[in-house]
């Protein structure tokens, strides 16, 4: 997935200077590789470049992210709602594990996984070392491929 369409917005803080962002000032935007209802906010760094970054992901109720993987190891912190994630190359709701607010999950690089906002919307914070990448196990599941059809 090309990240050329990823907007870092003016809010993104540099990794090497004192700065802050209050929750009410977070700027959310669509991300081409996510379903259209999902939102992403870049908080720290530039996910398109090599280096540390922090983003937040917000999914409304009942939205599913089909099996995909990232080339970077990620640390997820659940901010609100319940984050359901399953490990594997095939979407299987029986494999979903629930993480309530405050939970932390380490997802090693290239681990195939899927998400479902099963019990309502959720917000997670993702910390990683970029560049950010995402590839769907089945390219037909990639929302960025369906937007041009």
Describe this structure as you would to a colleague:
The chain has one helix spanning 143-146, and strands spanning 39-44, 51-59, 64-69, 74-80, 83-87, 97-99, 104-107, 113-116, 122-130, 135-136. It is mainly beta and 149 residues long. The two termini are 17 Å apart. Helix content is 3%, strand content 37%. The strands form 2 sheets. It has a 5-stranded antiparallel beta sheet with strand order 1-2-9-4-7, with no helix packed on it. The chain has a 5-stranded antiparallel beta sheet with strand order 6-5-8-3-10, with no helix packed on it. The radius of gyration is 15 Å and the shape is globular.
The proportion of residues in beta strands is 35-45%
Distance between the terminal alpha carbons, to the nearest Å? 17 Å
SSE order, one letter for each helix or strand: EEEEEEEEEEH
Which residues sit in consecutive blocks of at least 5 with pLDDT less than 50? Answer: 1-10
Number of helices: 1
Report the mean per-residue pLDDT as an integer: 90
Rg value: 15 Å
Q: Structural class, judged by helices and strands?
A: mainly beta
How many distinct beta strands?
A: 10
Proportion of helical residues = under 10%
- Mind describing the biggest β-sheet? 5 strands, antiparallel
- Sheet with the most strands: spatial strand order: 1-2-9-4-7
Shape: globular
Brief description of this entry?
The protein is mainly β and 149 residues long.
What attributes does this structure have?
five-stranded antiparallel β-sheet; disordered N terminus; single chain; 37% strand; 3% helix; 1 helix; 10 strands; mainly beta; 149 residues; globular
């Amino acid at each position: 997935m090309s990240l050329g369409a990823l907007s870092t917005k003016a809010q993104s803080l540099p990794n090497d200077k004192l700065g802050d962002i209050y929750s009410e000032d977070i700027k959310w935007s669509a991300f081409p590789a996510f379903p259209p209802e999902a939102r992403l906010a870049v908080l720290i760094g530039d996910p398109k470049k090599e280096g540390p970054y922090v983003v937040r992901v917000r999914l409304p109720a009942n939205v599913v992210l089909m099996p995909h993987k990232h080339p970077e190891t990620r640390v997820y912190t659940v901010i609100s709602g319940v984050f359901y994630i399953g490990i594997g190359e095939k979407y299987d709701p029986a494999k979903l594990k629930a993480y309530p607010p405050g939970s932390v999950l380490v997802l090693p690089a290239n681990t195939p996984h899927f998400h479902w906002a099963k019990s309502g919307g959720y917000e997670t914070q993702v910390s990683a070392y970029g560049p950010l990448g995402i590839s769907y196990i089945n390219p037909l599941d990639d929302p960025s491929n369906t937007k041009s059809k």
